[in-house]
Amino acid sequence: MEQSGDFIVFLGRFHPLFLHLPIGFLVLAVTLELASRTDKYVSLKPAVGFTLLLGAVSALVAAILGLMLAQDGGYSEDLLSLHKWLGIALVIFSFGAWILYEQKERRQTAQLKKAYAGSLVLMMVFLGGAGHYGGSLTHGTTYLTQNMPNGLRKLVGLPVNEGPKLITNLNEAEVFGDIIHPILETRCNSCHNESKKKGELQMHTVAALMKGGENGDVFVPGEPANSTMIQRVHLPEADEEHMPPKGKTQLTPEQIMLLEWWIGEGAPFDKKVAEVAKAAEIDAILQTLADPDANKTEVEILLAEGTLPPDLEKMNALKSKGVMIKSLSNDSNWLQVTIDKNLPVADLLAELAADFSEQVTWLDLKETPLADADLAAVSNFKHLTRLRLEKTPITDEAMDHLKGLNYLEFLNIYGSKVGDSGIEKLAGLRNLRRLYAWESDVTIAGAKQLEEKMAQLEVNLGFEVQVLDSLTVQVLPVGQTE
Ligand code: HEC
Question: Strand 324-327 and strand 335-338: pairing?
Answer without folding.
Answer: antiparallel
